[in-house]
Design brief:
Aminopeptidase; 6-stranded mixed sheet; about 15% strand
Length: about 260
C-alpha cells in the first residue's frame, strides 16, 4: 500500500505542471510591499528592489517561448502571505519564486542565499497535517479532486498521501533552489552555505515547488551598490531566468523518466 501511495504522490506532483499552451508557469513573488517595506538601509527599501527585479523577470519570461509567468503584485501594495499563496493556486503555477533582499547587523555579511522548505520536525509535521485536515476537510482541495485520490479513502490514507506529496514537493523545491544557485551570476554567494532550508511560511504553505531567494545584503557596501545598479539587476534577472529554465528542463526529464 505504501508503494502505491508513493507512486500516486509522484504522479500527483508531476501532474501539477500546468496544461496551458505555455506548458510551465512561474509565480513570481516580490517580497514585502506597501506598509511592509522589509529591509531598509540608507533610504533604500527592500520592497522597491524586489518589485523592480520581479517586473524585470516577468518581462524576460514573457519574451520567451519557454515558459509563462504571473506576478503577485505589480505595485507597491501590502500583500499578505495567504494572499500570495492563494494567488499561486488560482493561477495554477508550476513553481513559486519569492524574491527578497537581506540585511544583517554584521555589515560583512554578503551574497545571495537560496532557501527551500525544511523537513518539519515530527511534532511540527503533525500540527501541519492537523491544520490541513481542519481547514480543508482532510486534504488540500486540489488533492481531493484529483482522479488518483479515492473518495473512499479514510483520513489516515489521506494524511499519508498528503505527507508523501509534501516530501516530494520539498525535494523538487530543493532542485529548484539548486538550479537557481548553479546559474547565479550576481554577487558572490554567501560565504556560509548559500543553499539553505528554512520554515518560511510563504514557501512552506504553497502546494507547488517553492524557493525564496535573497539577492544580497543591503547592509553590505558592495551588495548595496550592486542592488542599486540597474545593469546589475538585469544580470540578476538573466541568472534567475536561466535557473528556472534549468529546473524546468531537469524536472521535465525526471517526470518523463519516471512515468510508468
Amino acid at each position: 500500500m505504501r508503494f502505491y501511495l508513493i507512486l500516486i504522490a509522484a504522479l500527483f506532483l508531476s501532474s501539477t505542471f500546468s496544461s496551458n499552451s505555455w506548458g510551465f508557469t512561474v509565480i513570481i513573488d516580490p517580497g514585502h510591499g506597501g506598509a511592509d517595506v522589509g529591509a531598509n538601509h540608507r533610504g533604500v527599501k527592500e520592497s522597491e528592489i524586489t518589485l523592480k527585479v520581479a517586473k524585470k523577470l516577468h518581462q524576460r519570461i514573457q519574451r520567451s517561448e519557454e515558459m509563462n509567468s504571473q506576478i503577485t503584485r505589480t505595485r507597491d501594495v501590502t500583500l499578505g502571505l495567504d494572499d500570495r499563496v492563494e494567488f499561486a493556486e488560482r493561477h495554477k503555477g508550476d513553481v513559486f519564486l519569492s524574491i527578497h533582499v537581506n540585511s544583517n547587523k554584521d555589515q560583512r555579511a554578503k551574497g545571495a542565499e537560496f532557501y527551500f522548505q525544511n523537513q518539519l520536525e515530527p511534532n511540527e509535521a503533525a500540527a501541519y497535517l492537523a491544520h490541513q485536515e481542519s481547514q480543508l476537510g482532510g486534504v488540500h482541495a486540489s488533492m481531493t479532486n484529483h482522479p488518483l485520490v479515492s473518495p473512499h479513502w479514510g483520513s489516515t490514507l489521506k494524511t499519508i498521501f498528503l505527507d508523501l506529496v509534501q516530501q516530494a514537493r520539498v525535494k523538487k523545491s530543493f532542485l529548484l533552489a539548486k538550479a537557481l544557485r548553479e546559474t547565479w551570476g550576481g554577487t558572490k554567494k554567501s560565504k556560509t552555505h548559500s543553499l539553505k532550508q528554512a520554515p518560511f511560511r510563504v514557501v512552506s504553505q504553497t502546494q507547488i515547488p517553492a524557493t525564496l531567494v535573497e539577492l544580497g545584503f543591503l547592509t553590505n557596501r558592495r551588495d548595496y551598490r550592486a542592488l542599486n545598479d540597474d545593469a546589475y539587476l538585469d544580470q540578476v534577472v538573466e541568472s534567475l531566468y536561466q535557473g528556472l529554465l534549468k529546473y524546468k528542463s531537469e524536472a521535465t526529464e525526471d517526470t518523463v523518466a519516471k512515468t510508468p
